[in-house]
Amino acid sequence: METKVRRIGILTSGGDAPGMNAAIRAAVRNCIHHGITPIGIRRGYNGLIQGDTFEMDARSVNNLSNRGGTILYTARCKEFTTPEGVQQAVRTCRYAGIDGIIAIGGDGTFRGAGKLSEAGINTVGVPATIDNDIGCSHYTIGFDTAANTAIECIDKLSDTMQSHERASVVEVMGRHAGHLAVYVGLAVGATAILVPEFPVNLERDVIEKVREGRYRGKHHFLIIVAEGVGKCDEIAQQIEAATGIDARVSILGHIQRGGSPTARDRTMAARMGHTAVEELAKGHTDLVVCYRDSHIVTIPIAEALRMTKPLDPYMYKVAYDVSI
Ligand code: F6P
């Protein structure tokens, strides 16, 4: 006989991402649609360990889809990586009557979700990170907004850099992955894109392209560097030394994680948050909600964690070929 799910806890964990709030809203509203009480958990797994939970209702998520950040706060929780931490979290669930958890975040969040599931708490993960580096899902909530924010900043930067005929070396986020850098680089018409996945030769692939660009009449050069490559100061100095072109470094940093989510992030978050509740309401557990080939699907957590997402070589090639 299927046991009725009564209370679903919702948490956000890891780096925040625009659209997390829209996912929370969809999960809360779909809980209510099913007659389930949604429980907010503050500061990710920390809140679960410390019992920092509160009942939510339909009105507690009013006007939320358009807001960046996460109203539940977020954190990275070392304690939850220990068996004692997990046991304490399970005790909170029992005490608060929580019989299902939605964990919104990146792969660290899903590792935690897997442990909770193993410990007997039905748990479903929802992928949200601006890095878009979750192997099982072709898209992660927050990527589109972060890319658009980076593009807007770089467009502004281009105005001043163009006026001074400078080279801009711009670092974008992405931790160890270059998805954001390639996407942004293609969108802004970068002269070169440096990502950890495809090592480049600075002289041949960057400096020579700048020289060639100048010969063809270019006045401004955008070099997009993924965070995982770093060394922007060194790169700028070498460009300047080799070409005589004035070079400046801009590190976009955390500004990329803020702001009102785009339509893509809001709708993706709504679909994923809704699906997470559907799965828990059916008594399912140990799953990650994924976007694959234009569909929302679910994949077992262990399998999801084994999957990798290589950088799109075609997108990189397009950016390279049109950067002359
Ligand atoms: O994972 C998202 C992300 O913004 C990465 O791109 C970046 O490397 C990291 O988080 C920064 O983390 P923190 O906010 O802890 O400095």
Write up what this structure looks like:
Helix 7 links the parallel strand 7 (192-194) and strand 8 (221-226). This protein has helices at 20-33, 45-50, 83-96, 107-118, 143-163, 179-188, 202-215, 232-243, 263-281, 301-306, 313-321, and strands at 7-12, 37-41, 53-55, 100-105, 123-127, 167-172, 192-194, 221-226, 247-251, 287-292, 295-300. With 324 residues, the protein is α/β, with parallel strands linked by helices. The strands form 2 sheets. The protein has a 7-stranded mixed β-sheet with strand order 3-2-1-4-5-10-11, sandwiched between helices. The mean pLDDT is 96. Helix 1 (20-33) runs parallel beside helix 9, helix 6 packs parallel to helix 11 and helix 7 packs across helix 8 (232-243). The radius of gyration is 22 Å and the shape is elongated. It is built from 11 helices and 11 strands. The termini are far apart. It folds into 2 domains: 7-142 and 261-306, Rossmann fold, CATH 3.40.50; 144-257, Phosphofructokinase domain (Rossmann fold, 3-Layer(aba) Sandwich), CATH 3.40.50.460.
Set down the secondary structure blueprint.
Layout lengths: L6 E6 L7 H14 L3 E5 L3 H6 L2 E3 L27 H14 L3 E6 L1 H12 L4 E5 L15 H21 L3 E6 L6 H10 L3 E3 L7 H14 L5 E6 L5 H12 L3 E5 L11 H19 L5 E6 L2 E6 H6 L6 H9 L3
Parallel strand pairs: 1-2, 1-4, 4-5, 5-10, 6-8, 6-9, 7-8
Antiparallel strand pairs: 2-3, 10-11
Helix pairs in contact: 1-9, 5-6, 6-11, 7-8
The protein binds 6-O-phosphono-beta-D-fructofuranose.
The oligomeric status of these chains comes to: single chain
**What would CATH call the architecture of the largest domain?**
3-Layer(aba) Sandwich
Q: Helical proportion?
A: 40-55%
Taking Cα atoms only, what radius of gyration do you get, to the nearest Å?
22 Å
| Strand order in the sheet with the most strands | 3-2-1-4-5-10-11
Molecular shape:
elongated
Number of domains: 2
- The fraction of residues in strands falls at 15-25%
Structural class: alpha/beta
End-to-end Cα distance, whole Å, is: 65 Å
H and E order:
EHEHEHEHEHEHEHEHEHEEHH
CATH structural class of the largest domain: Alpha Beta
Low-confidence stretches: none
Number of helix segments? Answer: 11
Biggest pleated-sheet summary: 7 strands, mixed
Small-molecule binders: 6-O-phosphono-beta-D-fructofuranose
